[in-house]
Amino acid sequence: MSLRDDILVESRDMLIKHGFGKVSMRKIAKKVNVSATSIYLHFKNKDDLLLALIESSIEKLSEALNKQLVQDDNPLTKLEKMADNFLSFAIENPQEYEIIYMVRPEEMPKYPTEKFQQIRKIYEMLAEIIREGQTKKLFQVEDPLMSAYTLWAQLHGVASVVISKRLDTRIPSGEFMNQAKDHIIQGFITQKTPA
Amino acid sequence: MSLRDDILVESRDMLIKHGFGKVSMRKIAKKVNVSATSIYLHFKNKDDLLLALIESSIEKLSEALNKQLVQDDNPLTKLEKMADNFLSFAIENPQEYEIIYMVRPEEMPKYPTEKFQQIRKIYEMLAEIIREGQTKKLFQVEDPLMSAYTLWAQLHGVASVVISKRLDTRIPSGEFMNQAKDHIIQGFITQKTPA
DNA sequence: TATATAACTTAACACTGTTAACCATGCGTT
DNA sequence: AACGCATGGTTAACAGTGTTAAGTTATATA
């Protein structure tokens, strides 16, 4: 295993255990028994390392999304299962979930778009399911891709509220997530708007 | 005006202009012509200062929410207007919006709950509107308070995706936010689920 | 064998938040 | 009037951060 890989697994471990805030170049270096500056031989800078971590976390999320998905589920149950998987991943892997969404906007323009191929694939997959539901007259949407982003954003909001513990203590997070999920899916379903 | 106030306005200014990442104790100190350590005479630490900033931003958001709200609007249009106001505030004041939602979870337990009275009030207000819509048979919800959190979380998700520039470049953010808003509100509306 | 390149090192720069110790001013009490 | 003391400020320092420059060592190629 290369030093680059060592750095990745070790920093990933630190990230998961202690959160990204506690990850420092020097600490990683100490863990892999190397000087801090050596990391710069394998990563342009800390952001670059962070990006690699994001990438692998997105990969993991992407896999988690498709869990228990059956080919011949109808689009609605597919979407529901994916929403479940999404929220489950978020609360079971809060640190990893966070890193995906943690990069601050002022730093975003730096990030090469090709790095986000993986996450784009997820959106396209969602859009495909929505398109399927659209032709089957299950969903009432205009632009499936945009709806995929909408769905994603809403789920993200729910996950982030729970993870960052901003939920009222009176409200049980499990029920909250379930209810929110229903609301979100509901927003897509075909319906006669009441007169 | 007290030094404490000077520190607040100056750091708020820095926050808005350059983002929270660029705000440092020493820079603030320089701006208000005082030594960095003097700040600690008025704030316990940086987090404490941050908290004061959050508080005032929440206040501002709270005011923005009620803009153009008319007493005798029906609950549905009230909710729609508030959703609009929420998203508008977020994109017009990204730095301030961010600071409200930027505090990392591991640091959250430190924060005294009484500081979040203001934001709780917002939730209660939302819940009240939802309750109103519930009795008027406009909305179909179980627990209005939980629904308030659901609504809020979804809006936050949409705002955060746009602010942190994670939206596909093919998708115009204005349309996206509008569509998302419709979806979110849709999830609350009473309806006959299709057979 | 010489040379180039790769992988690593140490030292240093310019920052960061935060604490300890010190100093001046003004106020209340004896 | 003199003492003590709290208030609001100071400088120096600690321990940590990301990052760069320069130096070293080993390996592979010409």
Question: Which descriptors apply to this entry?
Answer:
mainly alpha; homodimer; 195 residues; 63% helix
Can you put this structure into words, describing what you see?
Two copies of one chain form a homodimer. Chain A is an all-alpha fold and 195 residues long. Chain A contains eight helices and no strands. In chain A, helix 4 packs antiparallel against helix 8 and helix 6 packs across helix 7. The longest helix of chain A is centred in the N-terminal third of the chain and has 20 residues. The first copy, chain A, starts with a helix and ends in a 9-residue tail after the last helix. The mean pLDDT of chain A is 90. At the A-B interface, helix 5, helix 7 and helix 8 of A face helix 5, helix 7 and helix 8 of B. Chain B binds a DNA duplex (30 and 30 nucleotides) through loops.
